[in-house]
Specification:
Strand content: 5-15%
Order of helices and strands: HEEEHEEHEHEHEHEHEHHHHHHEEEH
Number of strands: 13
Amino acid sequence: MSRLRAAPSSSETNAPADTNVAEYSVSEISGALKRTVEETYGHVRVRGEISGYRGPHSSGHAYFALKDDRSRLEAVVWRTSFTKLAFKPEEGLEVIVTGKLTTFPGSSKYQIVIEAMEPAGAGALMALLNERKVRLEAEGLFAEARKRPLPFMPRVVGVVTSPTGAVIRDIRHRISDRFPLHLLVWPVRVQGDTAAAEVVAAIEGFNAIGPGGKLPRPDVLIVARGGGSLEDLWSFNDEAVVRAAAASAIPLISAVGHETDWTLIDHAADRRAPTPTGAAEMAVPVRADLVATLAAMDARAGAAISRGLQAERRTVAALARALPSADTLLAMPRRRLDEADAGLGRSLRILLSDRRRLLADAGAQLSPSRLEAALRDKHADLRHADSRTLHAMEAGLARRRHTLDRLGSAFRPNIVAARSDQARHRLETTADRLDRAAAALLERRRSALSGSWRMAASLDPRQVLERGYAIVRGAGDVPITRAEDLVPGSRFEIEFARGHKRPALALDVTGEAPEAPTAKPARTARRARRMEAETVQGDLF
């Protein structure tokens, strides 16, 4: 991979004289990363599952992501490439894409610009699954979620195998070499009619041992057998053996046959070993390695602590040299304090002089003769206001009495009854006219609404489809109205009555599809887009 390099910015001329580290702007470093990624990878092929696809954008580009079980890669298909894809992307589809890696400086992301896409298929299939394996797997006996981790350092190991033969000797020698501990052997037949029942009894017997008894309870079990033919290993495909291994409360290692041999107990066990010796290596660690690892970790921890202390000491010393002295830090505050102290006395004297002058001016205005004159003026104003208020009350009372007398003469009983009859007659006439006007208006609105519905029904294109017509739509759901727009080999869609749609393929005059696509569909697609821009069929509803 090429190194990341970028031209130094103009701000390098202002860098401090005591450093030679280049200074870059954000745009410069983003551009350098973009060039590095594009020049290093070029065209790549990536396999992954489409995620986040919601169809093409209004601009014609498509944005989504490719992911697997651990990573995610942003992807984009430009409009010009999207129309040339052999098939359109779909959410959750596993594909193999070809394109160029690039970066998007606006958000510090890298992405792949896809130019070609092809399906990756359904993947490899598991071979030779019999009826028993399918049924047990459906019950969840082979699920990875139920498998438990093996103990790191067991104290007791239980072995279910034949007491004679090379298997038990290999396990004993390997455990003795790696980490000597207590080994319990439950002897069983590993071949024959009774082998399955004996293996089930051994697994259940080890699980029945209680903790703290005379016989120690194993921390891990090993079910082992040497290699052989399918008939020789058939006992370990027995359903009872598989269920016993799956139900074991003690973690179980299956070591049946050689590395290429597989039995159903391998799927139900917590771990599968390729050989009995490999099972012993899985069950116990190497004591010498543990001791060496602890010693190395202790040495590394001591060295790391020492290096950390040295680094902290150097950092503290460097920071101490960079800090200014106390006199330097307090010089400016001390000067500002002295200036404030000198100006405070002058300000207090000036303020006190101003307050004394204002007090003297206010005291000169408060003489006894001035107060008596002001009091006499207030008494005169009060007497004048009292006389005006009395006069106004008498005049208002006279007006109220005159108004009351006039109203009493106007509201005689016969006049009131006549006016009441006239008002009642006008009210009844107005109510009749209002009812007739409301009924007429309602009838006119009903007539207008019925006419509008009849007009809408006559213009509804679905009514035309009910009479046997159909609508032909091409790429982009654009209606095709001329026969020359249907190029042999192009795909289109026919819409019938009640919303039913059927895909179709245009054939030539001989009734056969063309052998290879030509450049004409591209012109048809452009004509369809031009027709879509010129004539857009609306919807009345």
